[in-house]
Structure formats: structure tokens, C-alpha cells
């Protein structure tokens, strides 16, 4: 199993050497845990794909320590500069034209790169100690629920990687927002996440579109065309237990009625008495608390022997959009295996 490191100065120096030599390290971020490699080392990045079982058409996010470091891998325009100034360090990923130094394996052969400056103090310390840009998708087997603790990483990839940097539970709990700002006049959110779309629009002083994917015949865990950004696959973040996302919240009558073999998950604590197998994401209905709890709760329910997980949507604003995006993808049926 992988060795778990505490984040001491000696640990960070050791892990920085691992990364500089082309190795892999699972790392904490404020969003989810990532599986990191030297982003400019194509062979090191290939090891990420092998460890996760990740297909080559799904690109990686490049994490850097600063805006200056981001300039070395991507070409910025005015809109990108505005968003970086407002939201970095933080859970926002920018899609921009890539610099020639970024290997094609990182971008799935596209001329664009996904880049962000993370806020987690241990991840930032490792970026500084290594002096490298780090490609780091979620540190889990491809398609499964994202990890938000070091224990989740150990359970999923502990027999495939050598090192995990333990930074405690992730404080946001869902992945970064990804926005395509190559056209500064028409920014497009490709994946809702830790930065609300409303905040992006306010920072830019203009509306921000949300990408609406066209249906792909046979789309699912297997895709033929390279994606523009991570997290855009129709089926992703999925427990092994079948998951159903309801179109509307549960009623009190729904929750009082027993449903053998089924666990029902509410966004907030039910106001009235409910059946025993009812769970909730946030006692108070707080979206930030619900996002932090989401992936850990899905993992717990996936191992609890239920036949099906049925979950109601979050309110469709702010972090609720990110929660619903993850649930929609987790519930999607795969047409091919």
C-alpha cells in the first residue's frame, strides 16, 4: 500500500524529489485529492493515466504556484487575467491556449491547456518545494467517486501508487469550476464547481454561458473524441451502486414511506419524521456543507449494501449547480462498457 506522508518539511522535500524524478504523488487540494506528476514530463504524466485507468481523450489540469508560473504554460488575455486576479489561489480552472512546453498527453492533443493555482497550503508548499507545474486529476480509479480524504485515495489507488500527502479533508469537496476564456467576449463555463457562476459574471462584468453538451450517441465512460476539459464526460463520479437523481425534491409523504433496499438522500434534514434509511447532505441546507459531504456520503452508501441510491437535486444556484452536475453524471447510464 502507499505510504502516507504528514506534510513535514522533510516529507515535502522527499516528495518534491519523487516528482522531479518522474514519480507520482497523491496530493490534497481544497477541492478533491489529485494524483500529481511533473506536468512537462510526458512519461510522468503517462503514469497518471496508467494508474487511474484514465483514457487518453480526457485531459489533465495543470496546477501551478502563481500567476507568473501560469504564464509559462498558457497564454492569457484580459478576461483570464481578471479572473486569475480575483479567484486565484482557489477552485477556478481556466482554459487557454497552451505554450509549446506542455506535452500533448496533458491536453489530449488539443491546443488548449487547463490551468489553476490551488489554495490548499500543503499543495502550495509542494508546488514551491518542487519548483514544477503539476498535472493532477482526481486521485481515484477513473470514473469512480472523487476522493476527499487521504483514506479515500488509499482505498482506491493505494496498491497502484507509492505516496500520498495527507492534508486532511478537502474544504470544498467538489472539483474546480472550469471556464473557457479563450474568447474574452464569450466566456463559457464547461464544468460548474467551487466558484459560483454568478461570481464569475460579476467579476467579468458580463453574462457567462454554461456549456450545454450535445447528445453523443453511445456516450458514457467510453468516448472517441478528445474532451476540451476534464469532467465533461457524460458518466463520471459514479458509485458502483445504481444512483438515481430525482427531477424534484422529495415530499414528506415520500420520505415517510418505507422503501426496502433503497436509500434516499435529501439536500437538507427533513422537517418531518422520515423512514430509517433517509440521509441528508446538510442539516441546515447549506450548499457549502452539502458539497463537502457529497462524495464522502456517496462512498459510505456505496459500501452499505443498498440496491439503489435515490437523491434529490440541490437548489440550482451557486454550489448547488456543481452538486447537481456531479449527481447527473454519477447517475448517467453507460451505453458501452
Low-confidence stretches: 217-224
In the CATH hierarchy, what is the architecture of the largest domain at level 2?
A: Alpha-Beta Complex
Question: Strand sequence of the main sheet, in spatial order?
Answer: 2-3-7-4-6-5-9-10-11
Describe the sheet with the most strands: 9 strands, mixed
- Strand portion: 15-25%
Helix segment tally: 11
Q: Could you tell me the mean pLDDT?
A: 94
Q: Any idea what the CATH superfamily of the largest domain is called? A: DHBP synthase
Order of helices and strands: EHEEHEHHEHEHEHEEEHEEHEEHEH
Number of strands: 15
CATH topology of the largest domain: DHBP synthase
* Terminal CA distance: 28 Å
Overall morphology: globular
Short précis:
The chain is of the alpha/beta class. It has eleven helices and 15 strands.
Descriptive overview:
With 337 residues, this protein is an alpha/beta fold. The protein has 2 domains: 3-210, Alpha-Beta Complex (DHBP synthase); 243-331, no CATH class. It is built from 11 helices and 15 strands. The strands form 3 sheets. Strands 2-3-7-4-6-5-9-10-11 form a 9-stranded mixed beta sheet, with helices on both faces. Strand 10, helix 8 (197-204) and strand 11 (209-210) form a beta-alpha-beta unit. The longest helix is centred in the last third of the chain and has 16 residues, at 287-302. The protein is globular, with a radius of gyration of 19 Å. Mean pLDDT is 94; it is low at 217-224.
